[in-house]
Amino acid sequence: MEIIESHFHWWPRSVFEDLCKRKGYPRAEHDGNGGYNYYRAPGCTYVLAVPPVWYDLDGHFSYMDTLGHQVSALGSIGPFSVHFSDVPAAEGREAAIQWNEEMAAAVRSHPGRFWATAAVPLTDTDVAMEVLEDAVGRLGLLGVNIPGSIGDDPDIAAPRLEPFYARCEQLGIPLFMHPTDALFADPLVGYGGALHRSVGRIMEATVATSRLIFSGIMERYPNLKVVVSHTGGALPYQAGRLDKNGTGAKLPELPSTYLKRMYTDMVSPHTAGMRFAIEYFGVDQVMYGTDYPCWDSHQALKLFEAIDLSPQDKEKILSGNIKRFMKLETPAKELSPV
Predict the structure, then answer these.
(1) Which of 121, 276, 277, 291 could join 231 in a cystine, given CB atoms 3.0 to 4.6 angstroms apart?
(2) HSE-up of residue 156 (Cα within 13 Å, Cβ side)
(3) CB distance 196 to 182 below 8 Å
(4) pLDDT digits over 112-139, tens only?
(5) Helices 125-133, 89-109: inter-axial angle, 10-degree rounding
(6) Could you give the number of structural domains in the chain?
(7) 41 belongs to a structural domain
(8) Rounded Cα gap, residues 145 and 36, in angstroms
(9) 27-30 and 36-39: which strand pairing?
(10) Does residue 180 sit within a domain?
(11) What is the DSSP track for 115-143?
């Protein structure tokens, strides 16, 4: 069967080599094993350890081949997306363009198997708009990654960013919301990172997405495409609280109305979570993904296959929805039945 990963991370090594040369923070260091440790800010207790598997795209696909299916992927940034807004605007611009050019080169070298989305710095709105236009127009990238915060600033729906969201809607470019390590890593320190990774990142995705709703961004831009990672964070499960307590935002519709316009992925390491995401968002708005290399793809597929779905609905989630949503062009191949 055909599988197109919607939540898949490959990072260009050149960006981290340059960060190893940077003075001050953010910066990176070689870990002695072919990977890097990334330090976001002085005094941060959380270190983002990134082993060498993250930088080997061919290795990614070799591993995917062991699933026994035709697997391709859409690359997104993940927790590193906040970096481009953590540095001065001019440096964020150059770093984002470097990242985006690496993504575009990987797309060219893996046609029909890898597609990519763009980094955009959000500290300066004009710079964000410039990088957006470059990523879409010159490089042909298919989406934009937005972190849960702009550096330490949690307001990703700030009024100054209105032109950015308006242009994303006009271009039809999806926004991929992924949590980072900026807001909750230090308050939830300890336990070998277990608390932050289990709860903190989900909290960040939940809060950031709620800001897009309560600020009126989703109301003013009804055709804005937003993908919330990790089955929508806690929002589907707590959607009733959005509607019960969201009257202060003075939206013309219930907050859950806007949430249900969004898309999500299948990154939830239990079948019940996957099933509820499908029930809540609807089978047409859920795209398969495994968060590779953060999660074992064999286990993810096993949990997904435990859901009782028709062959038609499986096909939608595994490949059909992302093809339609991202307007992907895939090479014609003989596929095994779903």
Answers:
(1) 277
(2) 32
(3) no
(4) 999 999 999 999 999 999 999 999 999 9
(5) 20
(6) 1
(7) no
(8) 22
(9) antiparallel
(10) yes
(11) EE-B----SSHHHHHHHHHIIIIIS----
